[in-house]
């Protein structure tokens, strides 16, 4: 049994090793052909056989490396690991973020794995299954891609900001989100909707989009990518003083955060179904 508390760097090393192997499995299964295994919230919210296989692989690898830890995964919840010390380590996993992209062969899907200690995310990795791009962060240690430290966008004018967002699977929620976008888009440069929240957060951390917001994110969508964004200097919040979570996640550099936040509040972006 593991008794010592690992450092964030030690946890990141494990996360990177496990995520790389998981991404390789997901890539191989996509090349071989994938099938829809089930649906989740709606018939458009799919689970592939690869999602389940990758999650089982990651859980097995983490059990081998750190058998006393808990794991929260998107497909199996906490059921693949026993309860852990609340002050111990919990791993938060999205085996394939961007499952619909993955199913359709679009190169915008990723394995996302974060380590949480005593309720705080301290290490995270997001690895694109198709391209091999990899973003990492540790609490207080910065955010990185391919040896380059990330600092987010330098944009200061909301009217020139490229903003990423996403849409839920429920038809009512999509309609509300579409109304928000319709009212927001005249006030920004443009919208991008790529379909994988963890990657959107990493692109915002890198400045390849200027900001990102979305309603409906779960822990596994936010944990690793959110840490990458924060460590790149972005403010990652909810609206009106609330923390980031299912109501809304907004990730933006300080110069854009305030005006984008206020616009989203005016548009009731955290409201609707």
Automatic annotation (TrEMBL):
Q: Name one GO biological process term.
A: inositol metabolic process
Q: Which UniProt keywords apply?
A: Hydrolase, Magnesium, Metal-binding
List, separated by semicolons, the cofactors it needs.
Mg(2+)
GO terms for molecular function, please? inositol monophosphate 1-phosphatase activity; metal ion binding
Q: Which domain of life is it from?
A: Bacteria
Provide the binding site for Mg(2+): 74, 94, 96-97, 221
State what protein this is by name: Inositol monophosphatase
């Amino acid at each position: 049994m593991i008794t010592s508390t690992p450092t964030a760097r030690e946890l990141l090393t494990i996360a990177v090793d496990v995520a790389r192997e998981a991404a390789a499995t997901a890539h191989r299964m996509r090349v071989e052909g994938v099938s829809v295994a089930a649906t989740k919230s709606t018939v458009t919210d799919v689970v592939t056989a690869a999602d389940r296989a990758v999650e089982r692989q990651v859980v097995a690898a983490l059990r081998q490396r750190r058998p006393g830890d808990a794991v929260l995964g998107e497909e199996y919840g906490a059921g693949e690991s026993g309860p852990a010390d609340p002050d111990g380590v919990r791993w938060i996993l999205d085996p394939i973020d961007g499952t619909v992209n993955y199913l359709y062969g679009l190169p915008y899907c990723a394995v996302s794995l974060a380590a949480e200690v005593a309720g705080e995310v301290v290490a995270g990795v997001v690895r694109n299954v198709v391209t091999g791009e990899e973003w990492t962060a540790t609490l207080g240690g910065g955010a990185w891609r391919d040896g380059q430290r990330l600092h987010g966008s330098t944009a200061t004018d909301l009217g020139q900001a490229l903003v990423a967002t996403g849409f839920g699977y429920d038809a009512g929620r999509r309609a509300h989100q579409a109304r928000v976008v319709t009212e927001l888009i005249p006030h920004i440069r443009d919208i991008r909707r790529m379909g994988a929240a963890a990657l959107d957060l990493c692109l915002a951390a890198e400045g390849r989009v200027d900001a990102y917001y979305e309603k409906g994110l779960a822990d596994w969508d936010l944990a690793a990518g959110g840490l990458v964004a924060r460590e790149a200097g972005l403010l990652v919040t909810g609206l009106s003083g609330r923390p980031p979570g299912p109501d809304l996640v907004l990730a933006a550099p300080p110069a854009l955060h305030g005006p984008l936040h206020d616009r989203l509040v005016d548009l009731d972006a955290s409201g609707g179904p």
